[in-house]
Amino acid sequence: MVWAYLIWVAAAGSAYAQISPGPLARAHADLEGSTKCATCHNFGLGNRGFKCLDCHAEIRRRVEGYIGYHARAYNVSAAETDCARCHLEHNGRQFAITKLDRDRFDHKALTGFALEGKHKQLKCDGCHAAAKIPATAKAEIKVKDLNHTFLGLKKECTSCHKDEHNGQFGAECLRCHSQDAWKPANGFDHNRTQFPLTGLHINTTCEKCHGPKPGEVTAKYKGLAFGQCQDCHADPHRGAFVNAKAGTCQSCHTTAGWKSVPSVSSFDHSRTKFALHGKHGELTCAQCHKNNDFAKPIAHEQCKDCHQDIHRGQFASRVGKKGENAADCAACHNDVKWKPSGFTRETHQTGKFKLEGKHAKLECARCHSTDGQITNTNTIAGKIPGAVAVKASADGKAALSKDAVFALKQQVCLDCHVDPHGGEFKAEPYANKCEVCHTQDVFRPSTFNLTSHGKTKFPLASAHLAVPCADCHKPLSMAEVLPDTPARKYHFADQSCTGCHVDPHRMRTGAMAGNAAVTCETCHNTREWRELRSFDHNQTKFKLEGAHQSATCIGCHRPVTAAVNARNAPKPTVDFAVTPTQCYECHDDIHGGQFMTPGKEKDCSSCHSISKWGSAEFDHSKTSYPLEGAHTQVRCAQCHTENKEINGRVTRVYSGTPTDCAACHSTAVPSLKSQSETKQPGAKPGTKKD
To answer: pTM of the prediction?
Structure first.
């Protein structure tokens, strides 16, 4: 009944859906259909299973040979039904039949190939690619696109990487190299070969010996000749020592260095005419034996036979103390060390120029330059253009050039040093003799003192004795410092007071007195500026008379006070040359301008004198109202009774006083007594006192 039912269902349109669990994946699509189920399924009477390994022989071979992932993942006891643990079918064409968690995949445990070093950084398709699958493995892999399979790869390095050695060392690259980097080959030890590396060979690169040679691409590591030095190195002696007892290179040389011939060499140079001492013992043979011709005689009696005279013959005619020839280098140098020379500072003292003071501490190069010109160091703090300073060496000392000039012509200070005085002292009595004021021990302070200053054209006296030198001899500004000019000025064409001091009188002392010969000394002295000498005012245009004699100077000569409160404003000063000479220019006009008539506006002396202001001598007869009779005895105030405020001041009015009798007198005739009472004792006729 069951089979009959199945046959009936198969006849119906939905028969296939009742038999198959679902459509197959794309890879197995050609096995679709109920008639092909037995291709993959085992329907025997015993244990039912799958036939996966019947078709996938490449997997069966790996499982049986315990190769790769499937050999470790496949459970043999479960037989081929274990395949379904990772590969599920009947889920449709788009279903991936392989379950693989790449992030959690343990490559070492599941494949037997640990990803180490730079392999850790690779992605899966970096190794699992069609290009890296050997041709022998491609045939058995069923996947059409080999870029989508993990099968076929080998563990050998050369299966993925190019064998740079072309099979010289087999396929076990890890014996010398690591997965971290191809170079350096830390696993390779040259000392385990037939040619252990010693001396300079240790630092020689592999390519230097093993190539590849020009035109070749592969380095050669096997079959190299290395029994003798000549196998790799050319014979620089061109066979000169082939027949000698020391016929091999090792007789004189070592791998430590070709040029450093050890003293244990079988060749003893002391048996020749020239024993090697000092630095000569460090020389290579080729430095003396040119072209490696050891049979050719070499001149060696004098240093110049081999060495260039770096002093360019400066000592060719030099003779020693006892008349011997001192021109050879050995007179100052030895073969142990060229510098320092045997010419010491003590030796220098026997020459024409003895080193004293600071000269004794100078490095040789400070004076002995390559062009014979002294390099100047006292350049006025570097402000004089053209003055060249010496460059110091790394240890703070100036290096002496091999081309230095030692036969110098300089003997006086200015031959070597810049004249900081700009030629101010080139004339007598100094004649540029720096030693008159300076010493070789120290340039500052100089030996020029107050006593020395007293012998100059400007002896210092009184307050000038306490003035520091720099207050008068000031440094020039940068704009003034030019070649051949002094850093400070010591000679002054103008030695008058105004040559150094600001003239508070505005340079008008001559105009003040009407005499150009009037100078600061006319009123002042060097002890104290405010301590004035007795100035004779009568020698000026304005003689002091009367009350003017008791007036103070500042009473008439008032300082200019304009802008004195402004910041950095000049101090108030007095201009003596423009001091007023007329009364009204100094004194207030108490009459309010009543007497300012044309031609008489300055004539206060018409009524007053400089002896006393109050005792006026006014001649009323010269007015339009001459005083006669009893009027001559009347006081001014009795007639001039009117007071008026003029310019804010109450002033007695004189101009315009009435002249009619009735304006002053009443109709009653005054008695003789009253007239006599108005008489002023001691009054003179024709005068009137106020």
So the answer is: 0.40
